[in-house]
Specification:
The protein is of the alpha+beta class and 162 residues long. The chain has one domain (30-160): Beta Barrel (Lipocalin). The chain contains 2 helices and 9 strands.
């Protein structure tokens, strides 16, 4: 009888954990639009690396795939219609004003941590790397925060596309 009770309690706990984990995963699934990207420095200064009104999209699917693109609006078009014939003066602002990557993601149980495993990235140093993001759902928005990258910690606010 005692063993049966222990098994029943264990099943309830595991089922509850699985339901909670599934709900968190389901909350992530979908397309998100970037609302804000802020870089906070250790000394308290704040800047907007992609401008005060960045554009971007984040996708999480039910199979564990993800992708993100972020761009600073207003970057001047290249004089050439061929993307491989930009001048250094055209290429540098385009590079500094854009980041994109895709890969897989996994949730870390009992934490507010999602790990993006990058398969490709516009910043080649991140390819095959894990990028850790702390998440919070607030006012129907997803807030992703990085650890400090150099001297800055990034906070990105996303709104789900309904």
């Amino acid at each position: 009888m005692k063993n049966t009770f222990t098994v029943i309690v264990l099943c309830i706990v595991l089922t509850s954990f699985q339901c909670e984990h599934n709900q968190i995963t389901n909350d992530f699934i979908g397309i998100w639009t970037l609302q804000k990207c802020v870089a906070k420095q250790k000394d308290g200064k704040v800047n907007y690396p992609y401008g005060e009104k960045p554009v971007g999209q984040l996708l999480y699917d039910e199979k564990g795939n993800m992708m993100v693109e972020i761009m600073k609006p207003g970057i001047k078009k290249f004089a050439s219609a061929n993307l491989l014939q930009g001048t250094p003066e055209e290429i540098l602002p385009a590079y500094y004003g854009f980041i994109a990557y895709y890969g897989t993601y996994k949730m870390v149980p009992d934490s507010n941590l999602v790990i993006h495993h990058l398969k490709a990235c516009s910043f080649p140093n991140w390819v095959d790397q894990d990028q850790r993001r702390y998440y919070e759902f607030k006012n129907k928005q997803l807030i992703l925060t990085t650890s400090f990258i150099g001297l800055e910690q990034y906070e990105l606010t996303w709104q789900k596309v309904e």
